[in-house]
Amino acid sequence: MKICVVGSGYVGLVTSACFADFGNTVVGVDIDREKVKQLNKGKVPFHEPGLDELIKNNIKDGRLTFTTNLKKVVNDSDLVFICVGTPTHRNGSIDLSYVERAARNIGESIDGYKIVVTKSTVPVGTSKRITGIIAAALKKRREKVKFDVVSNPEFLREGAAVFDATHPNRIIVGTESTAVRQVMSELYRPLYLLGTPMVFTNCQTAELAKYAANAFLATKISFINEIANMCEIVGAEVKDIAKAMSYDNRIGGKFLHAGIGYGGSCFPKDTRGLVYQSGAAGYEMKIVAAAIKVNEEQVKRFCRKIVSQLGTLKNKTIGILGLSFKPNTDDIREAPALAVIDFLQHEKALVKVFDPVAMALARRSVKGVTFCRDAYQTAKDCDALLIITEWNEFRNLDLARINKLMKKPVIIDGRNIYNPGEMKKLGFIYTGVGRG
Ligand code: UDX
Prior knowledge:
The chain is 46% helix and 14% strand. The strands form three sheets. Strands 3-2-1-4-5-6 form a six-stranded parallel sheet, with helices on both faces. A six-stranded parallel sheet has the order 11-10-9-12-13-14. It is α/β, with parallel strands linked by helices and 436 residues long. Uridine-5'-diphosphate-xylopyranose (UDX) binds next to helix 9.
C-alpha cells in the first residue's frame, strides 16, 4: 500500500518506520525542514531503541522517505495517517490545532478517494470534526471527492515503541464502513501470524478506548501507591502485597510497582484529558480524578521524606540518579525528577544530577544544577542520594564505593530498586516507598 504519515514526531516516526518495514511505501510529512533533512539521512531526533536502524534500513530499501510537501505526496497515497501532536492545557483541555491544520491541508489537496486515519490521541468526537474540516475544504474547492475517516489509536510505550508497534496487544479500528475495515485488516495483515486481535468499532468508541486504557493503567499505579503509603504507616511491605495480588489472574502483575508516581507524555495528559472531556460531557469521572490527585501527592510525599531524613535542606548537597520519566528513554516530560529538583531548589539545596541518556535534553531546560558524568561523581559529598528513575545501571552500583563517597549515607529510593535489609547491612540509612 502507499501510505502518507502526517507528523514525524514520536508516534509518526514509529508508525512510518513500521509500516515501511511491513513492505508498504511510506512518505513521512513534517513542517520542520531541518528535521526532514536529518530524517532523510536516517537521523532520529530522539532516543528510541531500534528506531534509527529501522528507519535507516527502510530508507536504504527505498520504502521510506520524508518531505515537507504534503500536497505533493498525499494524492499518491491510499491511506493518510494523522500523527501530529495534541498538546494538553493544564486543565485537561486539548489543543487540536495541529490535527485541524492537517485535516484542512488534506481537504485542500486530495483529488481522489482517501482513507484518513487518526493515530494521534484525540478527544472523543474528533473524527467527526476531521470529517467536517475535510468536507468544508473540499466544498470551498468545489470538489466532490470521497473520503473516510478512521480512528486507529496507538498504544506505544516509549523505550519499547518499535516492539509495541510490531507486536501490539491489539489493534483498534473505529469506522462503520465494511470496505474500510477490509483495507485496515489488509494493512495489519503482517500481524496476523502473531494472532493480534483486532477490535472493530465506531470512531467515538475507538477514541475513548485509548483514554480508558491509559487512565486504567494510571489508576492501577496510583492504587498501589496508596497501598504503599499505608504500608509505611502499618509496617507492611508493598512489594510482597503486589506479588500476592499479581497471582490473581484477574488483577495481573503489571503496573503494580509502587514508587514516586507516573510521569511522561501520556498518562498525566490523558488522565487530565479524560476528566476534562467527561466533565464537558456532563459526567464527573471520580476514580480517574482521584488517581491524578494521588499521583500529584506522591511526589510531594517523596520530597517530605528528604526533609524528614535531613531536616533543613538549605546548603545540603543532594544527588539525583535518573531524570527521564522512566528508563530507556531520554524523555523528561512531566518527569518526577523535575518536580523534585524544583522542590530542592526552592529549599535552597545544592543539586547534582545524572542520567544515562537524558542529560543532553535536561541541560536545555534544567538550570542551576550540577550535571555529573556518572552515579559516583553524583554521590560524592552528598547528604542524600535520590533514586528517581530505575535505570538498570543503578541496580548494579558499587554501593560500598557510593557509601564511602557520600557525606552522609542516606538513600531515598523512589523506585524500590534495592533491598532494605541489604542496604542497612551496607551501612545506609535507606528509605523506599511502602517498604514497611
Ligand atoms: C504509556 C502506555 O503504556 C502506552 O500504552 C501509551 O500509548 C502511552 O502511555 P509510556 O508513557 O511510554 O506509555 O510509559 P509506561 O511504561 O506506560 O509508564 C508510564 C509511567 O508510569 C512511567 O512514569 C513509569 O515509571 C510509571 N509506572 C509504570 C509506575 O510508576 N509503576 C508501574 O508499575 C508502571
